[in-house]
Specification:
seven-stranded antiparallel sheet, PF09859 family protein, alpha+beta, 29% helix, 240 residues, globular, six-stranded antiparallel sheet, DUF2086, 6 helices, Jelly Rolls
């Protein structure tokens, strides 16, 4: 393991994962401060123009996804993105398996990310899903879920690469939760540059008076008021 990957792994290991698990159980999302340094954030932003690093570019307005654009990284992933994917997954897999057990979903995830990717690839999910998103004034991301195929890891994370107040205003990360026979609940998640939010991709369990039930979650980004905003997204399953 090289120095950067070792450094990232040490940061990930230093996170209070018990607190993260409590937040995920209670709200479907949890924040992690200072996951990346400002220099690492700026370096990833600077790579946005290098098209050779990406497998595809999506202009949101063409598909009704909102306004703005994003690019999916190609393999091999940038070192910092790959290191985060490999080191965060083992910290989330226990939560994912516990949630599936509570929700009576038969799928269980292997402890190592490489083994899960092998499972995705065996099912024809071959395309990498980590991405970088770019927003300008007036852009936004509609509420959505990042599913992509049969094999879906139920948690993902997004890292804010820009500095609120300096690089942009507005553009808050938003997650909504729809419980059966109830109105949707919205959570606005404040982030600083280098902070990450870990959140449920699709469903999570909630305890009710008659036992546990599933709630449905979607996430998005509110309208940017000024400037430019970049975010890195780490999705643990690959796409068909």
């Amino acid at each position: 393991m090289d120095a950067l990957a070792t450094n990232i792994e040490a940061r990930v290991n230093a996170i209070d994962w018990h607190a993260v698990e409590e937040e995920l159980d209670g709200f479907g999302c949890a924040t992690v401060g200072h996951l990346l340094t400002p220099a690492e954030c700026d370096a990833l932003r600077a790579l946005y123009a290098r098209d050779a690093l990406y497998r595809s570019r999506v202009v949101m307005a063409r598909h009704g996804f909102g306004r703005g654009e994003y690019k999916y990284y190609a393999y091999p992933l940038p070192e910092v993105i790959g290191a985060l994917r490999e080191s965060v997954y083992p910290r989330l897999v226990g939560i994912a398996n516990r949630w599936n057990e509570i929700m009576r979903i038969d799928t269980r995830y292997p402890p190592d990310h490489a083994d899960f990717i092998d499972r995705c690839h065996a099912a024809g999910q071959l395309r990498p899903t980590p991405l970088i998103l770019q927003y300008a004034q007036g852009d936004y991301n509609c509420l959505h879920q990042d599913l992509y195929g049969e094999h879906v890891f139920p948690l993902q994370l997004a890292i804010l690469l820009s500095a609120p107040g300096r690089d942009f205003t507005g553009g808050e990360f938003v997650i909504t939760e729809q419980r059966p026979r109830m109105q949707s609940r919205a959570e606005v998640v404040p982030l600083a540059q280098g902070d990450a939010v870990i959140f449920a991709v699709h469903n999570r369990p909630v305890n009710g008076t008659r036992g546990a039930y599933r709630v449905n979650l979607r996430h998005g980004v509110s309208r940017l008021r000024s400037g430019h905003r970049h975010t890195a997204g780490i999705i643990f399953h690959d796409a068909t």
